[in-house]
Design goal:
With 332 residues, the chain is of the alpha/beta class. It has one domain: Alpha/Beta hydrolase fold, catalytic domain (Rossmann fold, 3-Layer(aba) Sandwich), CATH 3.40.50.1820. The chain contains 11 helices and 12 strands. Strand 7, helix 3 and strand 8 form a beta-alpha-beta unit.
Length: 332
């Protein structure tokens, strides 16, 4: 293995396909484990094709009981052949550190900063494009206002924060409920409840609700099952269930983002409440599109999603584009 330096990180290049026994990497390519202030995070890259875009793309999965970079796999496979692309497992998920500690919105935002730093160390110090899914959109938006010079544009797929009661506090906080976290961590209940939560039928039911259809991605069911049956797999999800990853000021954060933002969502399933998007849809840097899909449009209509995203970048981010072999614009 080789050790590199940069932004207080150590990069461990892994030649094996498994860090934990029986758990495959969620996506292909080379895996690097980056030891940062928020622990070890696993990142994945594939060398881009010759002549691909020089602007890197970072893909970030959602947070739930079974989150991992597998959730962005179609986008990773597509863009890795066209531009420098990196995917990451957030702390507590996939191949990343699942140690016993507090998992909250602050930790996850710091993990986004660390992943961006790793992209820039690999591809050069330049603003990058970040494409995130669901709750991770909140972490990316916060990172964008904290270090605006590191992010060129934001892509938000099925973002949280626009649903339910408005989370528009003026200062940072979370919806964390310590009593619920304590209950989830009591004795035998800690592992027993999580086993029930991550049984294959339950995982399948969750994905059907997310898709708004029984026509889900079957390999995701299997990967979700295996990633949730690793040591410490319940730790981050319990903080998620107890509300610590949901910030109380996210609408204020979204309003403060100044970079170009591409937001998309579907119309099927349990995750279709976006009534607070009126807070941003009139802003000149926000561009909102709706697909006739569930919450994972990139799994259902990948070509439509990538074309819409590429068109957004061409029109609102980079003035210089050329055409890829498939007709999609390639950003310089």
């Amino acid at each position: 293995m080789s050790i590199g330096r940069g932004d207080a990180t150590q990069v461990i290049e892994l030649e094996r396909a498994h860090w934990r026994s029986g758990l495959a990497n969620p996506v292909g390519g080379a895996r690097s484990d980056v030891v940062t202030r928020v622990g070890r995070i696993a990142t994945y890259t594939i060398a881009p094709a010759e002549g691909a875009s020089t602007t890197p793309l970072l893909l970030i999965h959602s947070v739930n009981a079974a989150g991992s970079a597998y959730e962005v796999k179609p986008l990773y496979d597509y863009y890795a052949a066209r531009r420098p692309t990196m995917a990451v497992d957030l702390p507590g998920f996939g191949q990343s550190d699942r140690s016993d500690r507090a998992y909250d919105a602050r930790l996850m935002t710091d993990a986004v900063h660390a992943a961006i730093a790793q992209v820039q160390e690999r591809y050069g110090a330049q603003p990058i494009d970040v494409l995130a899914l669901s709750l991770a959109c909140e972490f990316v938006a916060r990172a964008a206002i904290e270090k605006p010079g590191s992010i060129r544009s934001l892509g938000l797929i099925s973002p949280t924060g626009f649903e339910g009661r408005a989370r528009d506090a003026q200062t940072y906080g979370t919806r964390g409920m310590s009593w619920l976290l304590g209950t989830l961590n009591v004795g035998l209940w800690r592992e027993g409840f999580f086993k029930l939560l991550t049984a294959r039928p339950v995982i399948r039911k969750f994905l059907e609700k997310a898709w708004g259809s029984k026509n889900i991605d079957e390999p995701m069911v299997e990967y979700d099952y295996h990633t949730t049956h690793q040591p410490g797999a319940e730790r981050a999800p319990y903080y998620f269930v107890a509300g610590f990853m949901f910030s109380t000021d996210i609408l204020t954060v979204y309003d403060q983002v100044r970079q170009p933002v591409w937001m998309v969502h579907g119309v099927r399933g349990d995750f279709v409440d976006y009534h607070h998007k009126t807070r941003v849809e009139g802003k000149p840097n926000w561009h909102i599109e709706v697909f006739q899909t569930g919450a994972f449009p990139h799994y259902e209509v990948l070509d439509q999603v990538t074309r819409a995203y590429d068109d957004f970048l061409a029109a609102h981010v980079s003035p210089n584009v050329s055409q890829a072999n498939d007709g999609h614009p390639v950003n310089a």
